[in-house]
Amino acid sequence: MKDKKEHCLISHFFIQEFEEACLMMRIPQLGEDVVRLRFIPFALKDIAKKWLYNLPVISILSWDYFVKIFLKKFYPIHMTALIRKNIMQYRQETNEPFRKYFEKFKDLLAQCPHHGIEKWRQCQIFYEGLDYQTKMLFETMCQGEFLKKDDQGWDLYEALAEKIIQ
For the chain, what is the mean pLDDT? Predict the structure, then answer.
């Protein structure tokens, strides 16, 4: 299972890194999609390159479509479902420092950026997983209305994680 999970993570990070590299290659007469599609065969290796060459000729007409079929092939739906489940059930461990809990949660979100969970819901999930003392800290900071903060809750998490020394 670990090999399959690592393979999926590599697939996602490949897309991110490839997009970043292509942003550095500006060709005036070509759009970003065309540049990405022309360079993709040079970036893929081994199984992924064989997969690309076995696709029907002219079957990939946009970068978004390539990403969709690439992730479908190398980041299967069951992995997305598993990571989504882990996100939804995420809990702070006993005596786990807030900063560590927050960083681990962000790492989990980064493993599957196509998880489809809106930012306000991520804030709620994170809050629900906090230990009692930390929840009370946030409620005190917000006069008992932390959950009404929606997306602003994330900014409070970031601010607190920065200020904590551990």
Answer: 83
